[in-house]
Amino acid sequence: MQQPPEYPPPPQGQFPPPPVQSPTAPYPPAQYPAPQGQYATQPWPGAAPVPSVRRDRPGSVTAASVLLIILAVPPILFALLAFVGAGMFHSANGQLNDTPFSGFGDALARVAVVFGVVSLAYGVAKLVAGIRSLAGRNAWRVTGIVLSALGTAFWVLALVGSISGNRDSFEDHGPNGGGIVLSLVFLAMNLTALILLGRAGEYFRSSSGQYRT
Known about the structure:
mainly alpha
């Protein structure tokens, strides 16, 4: 077997020339600083952080919410009066035991309680819808729209009844002026809240979820 050639040792006082790296030799791997944290990310060069968007609450939303709160007061008061009336009917029922109207007082008391519970639930729901609509809650906006639509329908019927007047078999009293004015006021308030909330859908569906009060 052929032996590799032997090179003479370098002269004393001289160092051997450095080895020449082959052009095909791989370059050393580039060293990169380790990211901070397990999933640290670097911002895009030149990109500024996007601030969170805070939208001002439109005046129409504030007006509609205040209208809902105001419109919640009459049903709650009516519910309290209905409960008081139910107690009075129940107390008076004992005086009717020996008459043909025996049990009539309790029947009226039950009817008053039913109307009181329905009116109280309606008023409380409308009150909460007005408060939560101020905070930008879209679900309560929809609730306010439904309750305002029910209120609008109720006061339309009340307006028709007031215009028709109180007619009995003896005398035609004609239209009820006070009932017409009252019906028109509450009809306008419910209809205004309905329209304002219906037009504010874009604000309530905002993806930011942040609102400035």
